[in-house]
Amino acid sequence: MARTTDYDAIVVGSGHNGLTCAGYLALAGYKVLVLERRPIVGGAVCTEEVIPGYKIDVGSSAHIMIHLTPIVRDLQLEQHGLEYIDMDPYAFYPLPDGSGAISFYRDLEKTCASIASVSPRDAEAYRRFMAFWKPFKRGGF
User: Fold this and answer.
1) Residue-range domains of the chain with CATH
2) Segment 88-128, tens digit of pLDDT
3) CA-CA distance, 20 to 7, in Å (whole number)?
4) Cβ(58)–Cβ(43) below 8 Å
5) DSSP 13-65
6) Of 20, 27, 87, 132, whose CB count within 10 A is highest?
């Protein structure tokens, strides 16, 4: 008879990487235990109600790259309560000298226009980078 302390794997830390690893191990049929020292899971990508009525991404980790992977689909995370609130723009960078700002949008043209308002050369470099990256991505922003 198996004891409750018999596990195939023990994952220390319930950040998004630990949870992803544990999820894939469980999907493969392994008995997994996840241990976390905090009362909330998610690590740098957890959302907490720090101020009553306001949910805040306390790790400031815009977790957009997950959409370029099969993780959400493979682990059926939406069926387990995962909900993303996609923002557009999804990132904003004010220049330290106050001379302008760059916004990153889901639309490449809008992003390049934003970058071009600060640096046309960098806007073209970003467009080339995105063209290079396109064959590797599985999802999209």
Assistant:
1) 7-86 (3.50.50.60), 87-134 (no CATH)
2) 898 889 999 999 999 999 899 999 999 999 999 999 999 99
3) 17
4) no
5) --BHHHHHHHHHHHHTT--EEEE-SSSS-BGGG-EEEEETTEEEETT-----G
6) 20
pTM of the model: 0.65
Q: Tens of pLDDT along 8-40?
A: 999 999 999 999 999 999 999 999 999 999 998
Rounded to whole angstroms, the Cα distance separating 106 from 63 reads 14
Q: Distance between CA atoms of 31 and 8, rounded to whole angstroms?
A: 5
Exposed, middle or buried by CB within 10 Å (0-12, 13-18, 19+), for 68? middle
